[in-house]
TrEMBL record:
Annotated SUPFAM superfamilies: TPR-like
Polar residues composition-biased segments: 364-375
Organism: Halochromatium glycolicum
Feature: compositional bias, Basic and acidic residues: 337-360
Protein name from the UniProt record: Tetratricopeptide repeat-containing protein
Region annotated Disordered, chain positions: 308-383
Signal peptide per UniProt: none
InterPro entries: TPR-like_helical_dom_sf
Gene3D superfamilies for the chain: Tetratricopeptide repeat domain (1.25.40.10)
């Protein structure tokens, strides 16, 4: 095996990965791994396993990703410690979505130990981000924001080794601000995201996502806005159709923004798109939003805990109250169909966050149902 062959693979892998052609990047990493194994080059084997695992993960091929990454995460010198840590970091990303809490905590401990053993504590910001993500998935947003703030602070002092882009830290701070109802901080982080150089395509997506969070929070003109909430949401969703990888967070915020605009047709269309419509509570949210509109109730974002925009508090005349009971019943059915998912996620992460969130949605249905009965009574007594 010549070094020239490996250099060719490295260049082509980098180009394919940046272009989000993960099938090609996986093929190239597998080719490089075979060459490294033939020569007994452990360091190159480890790096190629990391690249192979990351490519499979971006294609949502978890089993293949884990199979490639586990040997890399346990590799000893002469393997590069940065490659070993990258393997642990990607395994953490997988575990946060799919594995039990004990496995996530074990990987966090493994990451801590690896950084200490290699004298690379300056890279701890990547683990800070994972700890924040774990807290967020368990519904502990104050803790999540604290970890994300640590990650942002620590990455500023790290100019070595692998790292996430600056936009990766800023969007997490924006999301935590949204979930805590902190409109001022959300606006600040969105402004920062808008102003930074966009290192990769993902950073441009994150800037759009931050604008959508602003729209969801009632900020009329987010930093860098082009065309309003509905236009931003549709633009992002069309963009997502063209790329592989994990898209649920982007899609979630776009779909919620469209619900606030009353664009039911667009939401229905993208809910049927694989990888974009995989937002567990969204079908129920669609029916509930329709019912609120039909009853003349103000449109509300179901995840935003802060005060609603003043315009949302204005009274509306019921549009089609007779249709509301059907949509409320459909919302109730859609939410109840997610009960098993909520229980499984809570069991996996040892929390009750998902069931509490689901119950809050169902309570919204019951509250709106009271309005539906009042509207129906009003219709009956009109001359």
């Amino acid at each position: 095996m010549s070094e020239r062959e490996l250099d060719r693979i490295r260049r082509r892998f980098s180009n394919a990965y940046r272009a989000r052609d993960y099938a090609e990047s996986a093929r190239l990493a597998a080719e490089g791994l075979a060459l490294a194994e033939a020569r007994g080059d452990l360091a190159t084997q480890t790096r190629m396993r990391v690249w192979l695992g990351e490519s499979h993960w971006q294609r949502k091929e978890s089993a293949e990703a884990i199979a490639a990454l586990r040997p890399a995460a346990a590799a000893q010198p002469p393997a590069d410690p940065t490659d070993v840590f990258s393997a642990i970091s990607t395994l953490l990303n997988i575990a946060l979505i799919e594995q039990p809490l004990a496995e996530i905590r074990a990987l966090l401990a493994q990451g801590d130990a690896q950084l200490e053993a290699s004298g690379r504590q300056h890279a701890r910001h990547m683990l800070d981000l994972s700890r924040g993500e774990l807290a967020a998935r368990r519904g502990d947003w104050p803790a999540a924001r604290a970890h994300f703030q640590d990650a942002y602070a620590h990455q500023r002092g790290d100019d070595e080794g692998p790292r996430f882009t600056l936009g990766s830290y800023l969007i997490k701070l924006a999301e935590a601000s949204f979930m805590l109802g902190d409109r001022e901080s959300l606006l600040d982080w969105s402004k920062a995201l808008n102003e930074i150089p966009k290192e990769v395509e993902g950073d441009r997506l994150r800037a759009e996502q931050a604008r959508l969070l602003c729209y969801r929070a009632g900020i009329a003109v987010p930093p860098g806005a082009r065309g309003g909430a509905a236009a931003t949401a549709r633009r992002l969703l069309c963009w997502l159709e063209e790329i592989e990888g994990h898209r649920a967070d982007y899609a979630r915020d776009a779909l919620h923004a469209l619900l606030l605009q009353g664009d039911w047709l667009s939401v229905e269309t993208w809910l049927d798109y694989p990888g974009i419509g995989d937002v567990p509570l969204m079908r129920g949210d669609l029916h509930l939003a329709r019912a609120r509109k039909e009853l003349g109730l103000p449109m509300r974002d179901l995840d935003w805990p802060g005060s609603p925009p003043a315009a949302d508090l204005a009274a509306h005349h019921p549009a089609r109250p007779a249709k509301a009971p059907d949509d409320l019943a459909a919302a109730r059915t859609q939410y109840e169909q997610q009960r098993d998912w909520a229980r499984q996620e809570d069991a996996r992460l040892e929390t009750d966050h998902h069931q509490r969130r689901l119950d809050a949605r169902l309570q919204q249905v019951e509250t709106a149902s009271g309005g539906s009965h009042q509207a129906a009574s009003a219709e009956r007594v009109e001359p």
